[in-house]
Design brief:
By secondary structure, the protein is mainly beta. 6% of the residues lie in helices and 17% in strands.
Length: 354
């Protein structure tokens, strides 16, 4: 749409419930919202020139759904947005220049979904812990900014004295207030060991945890207390060296291309049918508790590695798994996978290889 301005003065539209302004590529500022007392849904996604949100947005007492997706030039949200007491879904996907959220975000009492993939957000406000109804928190850093760097700035970055790493932590020290959170997705957020809350295991409702493409060496041991966790995603965490005891109800662990991963502490307490995808984990030498798996459940492991370059310890792990499966694996030169099944009818454990 070529729309540049929605309306100049306040419009009183008492019955309007949905305002759809998506793909207004020339729109730089939102209209005055004060006359839209019944508005429930506001779509501003794909407004690629949008830079200013009118302060009156805080007057939309009945607003439930707000979408700023792909507003590539939006840099700031007004503080008044935190006055949206009825808002349940806030989408900021692809707001490439948005680098912070309002400090009073925790006042949005009904917020259940916050989607902020591919933004420039560096730190979540401490008040996020007050979002008792938040069920999904998804955030990732936009990593395509190199295309906007000038040759001069690149030259200076290479030859100027190095600054110490940024000490700002994305996450607050504790997330324990997010008692309803079922999905926490933080891929590609440059999270180091210090950036992960030690009480990560205090999220009683968490079912899905995605920490892929981050920079930590280990996970907090408290993740074993995530009693409802079913899916753990750690792919492309190339600095990850070990994974602590897994929660008992875990269904899937995906840790592909964790090239520094050496050990998984304990899988013996996993009670449900589970799978582990470990392709590219060439340094893996230990999966603790494989010989103590309960005979009433199944576990499937896929492990792809290059045996031409495998170490003696890696071969020992292979030998242990072969022993557990009671027969030799047909191992191809480049990759292999094993499947371990413990049947409810008995303790016969066997393997399948391709």
């Amino acid at each position: 749409s070529g729309l540049k301005e929605v309306w100049k003065e306040t419009k009183v539209l008492k019955k309007l419930k949905v305002l759809d302004l998506r793909s207004c590529h020339n729109l730089t500022k939102t209209p005055d919202f004060r006359g839209l007392c019944c508005l429930e849904e506001l779509y501003l996604n794909h407004c690629t020139s949008l830079v200013e949100i009118d302060q009156s947005i805080g007057n939309l007492d009945r607003l439930v759904f707000l979408d700023f997706g792909d507003c590539k030039n939006l840099r700031i949200l007004p503080r008044t947005i935190c006055e949206l007491k009825s808002l349940k879904n806030l989408t900021l996907l692809g707001c490439l220049k948005l680098d912070k959220l309002p400090e009073d975000l925790g006042k949005m009492e009904q917020l259940t979904v916050l989607l902020a993939y591919e933004t420039a957000i560096k730190q979540l406000p401490i008040s996020i812990n007050h979002l008792k109804n938040l069920r999904q928190l998804s955030l990732s850093r936009y990593d395509g900014t190199i295309s906007t760097i000038s040759f001069r700035s690149l030259f200076l970055s290479l030859f100027s004295p190095k600054k110490p790493p940024d000490s700002i932590s994305l996450l607050p020290a504790s997330l324990s207030g997010l008692c309803s959170l079922t999905t926490l997705s933080l891929p590609n957020c440059e999270l180091s060991d210090d950036a992960l809350p030690h009480d990560l295991g205090s999220l009683p409702s968490l079912q899905t945890l995605d920490l892929g493409r981050n920079n930590f060496h280990c996970l907090p041991a408290s993740i074993s207390r995530l009693s409802k966790l079913q899916n753990l995603q750690l792919s492309d965490c190339t600095m990850l060296e070990s994974i602590p005891d897994l929660p008992a109800n875990l269904i899937g662990l995906i840790a592909s291309n964790c090239t520094s991963l050496e050990r998984i502490s304990n899988v013996s307490n996993v009670r449900t049918y589970s799978y582990m995808l470990l392709s590219g984990c060439s340094k893996l030498v230990e999966i603790g508790g494989l010989d103590k798996l309960e005979s009433t459940e199944d576990i499937r492991i896929e492990w792809h590695t290059n045996f031409a370059n495998s170490s003696e310890k890696t071969s020992s792990l292979k030998d242990m798994i072969q022993f557990l499966m009671w027969r030799n694996l047909a191992i191809t030169p480049m990759e292999w996978f094993i499947e371990i099944k413990a049947h409810k009818s008995g303790s016969n454990t066997h393997g399948v290889a391709h």
